[in-house]
Design a protein that fits this description.
Pfam families: C1_1, DAGK_cat, RA, RBD_DGKtheta. The structure is a single chain. The protein is an alpha+beta fold and 699 residues long. It folds into 6 domains: 1-54, Wheat Germ Agglutinin (Isolectin 2), domain 1; 132-206, Wheat Germ Agglutinin (Isolectin 2), domain 1; 244-347, Roll (Ubiquitin-like (UB roll)); 353-447, Phosphatidylinositol 3-kinase Catalytic Subunit, Chain A, domain 1 (Ubiquitin-like (UB roll)); 456-531, RRM (RNA recognition motif) domain (Alpha-Beta Plaits, 2-Layer Sandwich); 538-698, Rossmann fold (3-Layer(aba) Sandwich), CATH 3.40.50. Helix content is 19%, strand content 21%. The protein is built from 16 helices and 36 strands. The strands form 12 sheets. It has a 5-stranded mixed beta sheet with strand order 13-12-16-14-15. Strands 18-17-21-19-20 form a 5-stranded mixed beta sheet. A 4-stranded antiparallel beta sheet has the order 23-24-22-27. A hairpin with a 5-residue loop joins strand 2 and strand 3. The longest helix is centred in the C-terminal third of the chain and has 14 residues, at 604-617.
Length: 699
């Protein structure tokens, strides 16, 4: 069957109940009930293939992303809820480990993570010079795993199902729709019912660094392996990775007994990197398979959408890697010690030149990408000049731009090219190492100037309290040295042993962050956070962004569940974990916003902590007394009882309903005071201070 949005459909007979991924209805019949994509497992009625709204095949989805954003994975767990994997589209059950993105509603098996599409929400899209009136925010659609009872925004009929991966949800405003109805919905998103408290992404900027998202927003995930920068030669790995010893012991004769006598198991390497790492995957093909058919089967397994005519096969165990050709390529493969026959998939390389795609990233243009012809003499600077002309920026100076190489596998990895590097050589080298990496590699045209600006703020905590500014400077310089000297220091929160230091160079700031994180003072590890920046001019006048503080240690596991839900429902840069620096980082980030609200999730002690910090830093903020709401997670929750927020959160209320209550709640004024007790006998002249909540607007 002809391809449909990258799918490779075949007629299939389903022996168990199967459901259409477009209309969610059951496939009826005894034989060949529907169509099945051999690449991504998409299932559809014959009639549904003619309807609009068919989601793209997984092999095509990555190429449709304009600005790739890495997912922020949770800790692997056995998910008990009825979910479907966004990669393989199969059911997620409690028997296997799965993960979900902490920022969006992307679910996947652990084994499917390498193939996950890097299309998380763009949470910081600030562009200097862009006017608020010219900002148009589009829906960010996520397929499947809709909440029970979800109805279509267009036709008002139920669109949720647990039988398959179907239906769509906007990650921003939360509206849901059928696949076919989605095309009827206007493209512009207004953030829905949470719009009045949403921190718009176009007001937020973060420094352009390689610091992972988890580190910036403070996601606490236990990792067994320390994360290190990836190189091109080690990035690709398959789900069937084996050590060399295990591979040597793998006997082809054992598996051969399980095969059909007319079929063959063939081990495939997609490049030199997979061979050196002993990572491969296996395809089952007829023994009399033709070369073109075998290549097509391998390309489907790798999710590569290019034509089979661009590739050839070689004998992995043969001397000098001979090329395999028809009529019987499998019969010509060298077989060593009873192992499976092994082949390399190689790209036919034109020695004279080729075509490359260049994406504009966040540059102000409606052109999604341009295709530029390159040869062996073309440099990165030449490609920048030609791309600027294709995007309509003929009057711009090429020296103000840079060209980045972006890999989309296992997240997003970026490397800035030197002006004299040869793009064609880069493509050839990556193709030799891994064809899958080459398929997921892009060139991006970007302004050299970081949209975040020159001021990069690092929050430093866990220092001794009550020291002088000079003492704090000396402590930090002991760890940083002259190479990572900060530009300015302040504000300093003397009472909490915390401060903010500023840099004007990104590389120096990142090095300083890692140096301080690995340092201890008085047997305590320093706490260091890279802070985002909010431009208050880009916050609409009718919006009061909600600053959320969550004490994850309160209420058992409810704090962890709430902070994960709030990060999905809101912009993660407006949700802060109090266990990671306390309230001060959030209050600093929001200091320039003229009107905002606060939601505190915790007990009475947590609320008093936040209010006390507001007292200390309020005079330095545009909004000195923001109204505060409470989600009671403590034991007593006396203040929450008085303000009618309830005696305690038991998890029965959906987090989105809590946010709706914050929007609709009435403001009331609450006095806050401090009791000072003096001893009558005068034996100890030191007063006893008993703080309590005061003087803030609580609603």
């Amino acid at each position: 069957m002809a391809d449909c949005r990258g799918h490779v459909f075949t007629k299939k007979t389903f022996h168990l109940p199967a459901y259409c991924h477009n209309c969610t209805n059951l496939l009826w019949g005894v034989v060949t009930q529907g169509n099945f994509c051999t690449v991504c497992n998409y299932i559809a009625h014959e009639s549904c293939l003619k309807k609009p709204g068919i989601s793209p095949c997984h092999s095509l989805a990555a190429s449709l992303i304009k600005n790739p954003v890495s997912h922020c994975w949770s800790e692997p767990a056995r998910i008990r809820n009825q979910r479907c994997c966004n990669v393989c589209r199969k059911r997620i059950d409690g028997r296997t480990f799965s993960v979900t993105c902490e920022i969006c509603h992307y679910y996947t098996h652990v084994d499917c993570i390498p193939s996950a599409v890097a299309d998380c929400k763009e949470t910081a899209t600030y562009h200097p010079g862009k006017l608020l009136t010219s900002v148009h925010h589009e829906h960010h659609w996520r397929e499947g795993n809709l909440r029970p009872g979800a109805v279509c925004y267009a036709c008002a009929k139920p669109c949720w199902t647990t039988d398959c991966l179907a239906g769509f949800r906007c990650e921003w405003c939360g509206i849901t729709a059928h696949a076919t109805c989605r095309t009827q919905i206007p493209y512009e998103c207004d953030f829905g019912i949470l719009g009045p408290i949403y921190l718009p992404p176009h007001a937020v900027s973060i420094p352009r660094t390689e610091v992972p998202m988890e580190s910036i927003i403070g996601v606490q995930v236990r990792r067994k392996d320390k994360q290190t920068p990836r190189s091109i030669s080690i990035e690709f790995s398959s789900g069937e990775s084996k050590t060399k010893d295990a591979e040597d012991e793998e006997m082809y004769e054992v598996e051969k007994t399980k095969e059909d006598k007319n079929e063959e198991l063939v081990k495939v390497y997609d490049g030199d990197a997979s061979y050196l790492k002993h990572t491969s995957f296996t395809v089952k093909v007829p023994k009399a398979v033709k070369t073109e058919t075998l290549i097509s089967t391998i390309l489907q397994s790798l999710n590569i959408s290019q034509s089979a005519e661009n590739f050839y096969l070689t004998d992995a165990y043969g001397l000098n890697e001979p090329i395999l050709e028809d009529p019987n390529p499998i019969n010509n493969v060298t077989r060593l010690g009873g192992k499976k026959p092994a082949v390399f998939l190689r790209l036919k390389q034109d020695s004279h030149g080729g075509l490359v795609r260049v994406y504009p990233g966040r540059l102000q243009t409606d052109i999604p990408f341009c295709v530029v012809s390159v040869d062996r003499q073309t440099t990165a600077k030449d490609l920048i000049v030609e791309s600027l002309a294709r995007f309509g920026f003929t009057s711009h100076n090429s020296t103000d731009y840079r060209l980045s190489q972006v890999l989309l596998e296992h997240g997003v990895t970026e490397r800035v090219l030197d002006f004299d590097e040869k793009p064609l050589d880069i493509i050839k080298n990556i193709g030799q190492e891994s064809l899958r990496q080459m398929e997921l590699m892009r060139f991006y045209l970007q302004l050299k100037q970081d949209p975040h600006g020159p001021n990069i703020a690092l929050f430093v905590g866990n220092l001794p309290t009550g020291l002088s500014q000079r003492t704090y400077e000396n402590i930090l310089m002991t760890f940083l040295g002259e190479e990572c000297r900060f530009l300015t220091i302040g504000p300093i929160y003397y009472e909490y042993g915390s401060l903010v230091i500023m840099y004007n160079e990104t590389d120096v700031a990142v090095n300083a962050m890692y140096l301080l994180r690995s340092s201890e003072y008085e047997h305590k590890h320093l706490l260091v956070m890279l802070l985002p920046n909010i431009d208050p001019v880009m916050v609409p006048a009718d919006t009061q962004p909600l600053l959320v503080f969550v004490n994850v240690k309160s209420g058992g596991c409810q704090g962890l569940s709430l902070i994960s839900s709030f990060r999905k429902l809101l912009n993660p840069y407006q949700v802060f974990d109090l266990g990671n620096g306390g309230p001060l980082p959030g209050l600093y980030v929001f200091r320039h916003i003229r009107d905002y609200k606060i939601l505190v999730c915790g007990g009475d002690g947590t609320i008093g902590w936040v209010l006390q910090c507001l007292d200390n830093v309020g005079q330095d903020s545009e909004c000195s007394s923001p109204p505060c709401a409470i989600v009671p997670l403590g034991t007593g929750n006396d203040l929450a009882r008085v303000l009618k927020w309830g005696a305690g959160y038991n998890g029965s209320d959906e987090p989105i309903h809590l946010l709706e209550d914050v929007i609709e709640a009435e403001k009331i004024r609450l006095d806050r005071w401090t009791v000072v007790i003096h001893h009558e006998d005068g034996a100890d002249g030191r007063p006893i201070h008993v703080p309590n909540s005061v003087g803030k607007l609580i609603f």
